[in-house]
Structure prediction request, 209 residues.
Amino acid sequence: MEQRQTLHIVGGTSRSRAEQAHMGFDLGHHCEIYADADELMAHPPQNGIVLVFDDESRGGVAKVLQALSAKGLWLPIVGTAFDPRPTRVVEAIKAGALDYLRLPLRQDRLADMIGRIGGEADAYAQARRKMMEARNRIAALSPREREVLDWLAEGCSNKMIARELAISPRTVEIHRANMMSKLGAEHPSQAVRLRLEAHLEGGTRFVAG
Prediction:
C-alpha cells in the first residue's frame, strides 16, 4: 500500500489550490494550502512533498528551494504551471525540482509523481544536502581557484592547467593548494568529488566575456 504523504500546495489561484488539494485527498493523502512562498516559510514544513506554482515574477520554484535550503530543510519540490514554457521546466529541474506538472492536474499523473517521489524522499534529502554543502564550499573559492578546480576535474596536470590559463606551474600549485585548503580536501580526488556533488555545469573557461 502506498505511504500516505502530506502535500504542501503553494501559490497559484485559490481555485487551482483547492482543485489540487481535492485531488490529493481523493488519492488518500493529506494536503496543506499556502497562498504563496512567504506563507509557506512562515511555518516551514518538516516533511512531505511541496507543489509550487512556478510564478516567474515571484521567484517561482527556485525561490522556494533556496528558502527551504537556508533553513536546512531538504524537501522534494515539484513545479506546477498552466502551459509551462519548456525553458521554465528546464530551469526548475536545474534548480533542484524533482518533477514538473501541468495544470490543471491529471489524477493519474499526480498519483504517479507521489508514488515515485515519496519513495525517494530520504535519498533526495541526503543528495540535496550534499549538493548545497558542496556548492557553499566551492562558492568560497576565488575565480582563479575555481578555474583550477574546473581544469583539475578534466584530468589536467599542473603544467596543462598553467598552459591553459597562461600562468606559471608554480602559480597553479599555489592556487591549487589554496583551493584544496578551502574545500577541506586532502587529495585532488576529494576536490573533484565535491565539484561533482555540487552539480555545477561546465567550467569557468566556457563563460563568455
Strands lie at 6-10, 30-34, 49-53, 77-82, 99-103. The first strand starts at residue 6 and ends at 10. The radius of gyration is 21 Å.
